[in-house]
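Regression test case RT-17, inverse folding.

Input:
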């Protein structure tokens, strides 16, 4: 397998897995219950929430597919734009955190607006900041770290 695609594949698998584990843990901490319908909810972006929540294993698999598809898409996107935008080689940790914020805002303000999922009703600056930091650690920084490693960027 081509080294580029192998690196993107493994990075996407890692960030998709850490992101969903983080989501499960966050929901469990907030509610005290295991979020057994999380993948149904993700599939609800395409099928509608009511239909997806009633669904079975096929719907859950569709949600799992969508989750990893999105993780891979944002991983591939960063790997492709990195050599074209020189400022991205400034600092891998800062760029990773900022990329996570970009992905989070893009998903909330662009992608989710085109789905039948209900808009988020709560907004808290502290909650948003905590989400961005945790998403940066489990998603943004690993993508940027592996991109730096793949393109052999000097340590900064």
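Golden output:
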């Amino acid at each position: 397998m081509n080294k580029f695609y192998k690196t993107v594949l493994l990075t996407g698998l890692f960030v998709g897995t850490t992101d969903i584990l983080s989501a499960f843990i966050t929901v469990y901490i907030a509610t005290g219950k295991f979020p057994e319908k999380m993948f149904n909810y993700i599939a609800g972006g395409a099928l509608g929430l009511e239909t997806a929540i009633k669904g079975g294993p096929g719907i859950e698999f569709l949600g799992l597919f969508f989750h990893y598809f999105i993780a891979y898409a944002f991983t591939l996107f960063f790997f492709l734009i990195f050599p074209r935008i020189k400022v991205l080689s400034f600092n891998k940790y800062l760029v990773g955190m900022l990329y996570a914020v970009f992905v989070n805002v893009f998903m909330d303000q662009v992608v989710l607006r085109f789905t039948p999922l209900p808009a988020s009703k709560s907004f808290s600056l502290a909650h948003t900041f905590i989400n961005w930091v945790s998403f940066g650690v489990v998603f943004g920084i690993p993508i940027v770290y592996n991109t730096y490693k793949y393109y052999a960027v000097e340590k900064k």
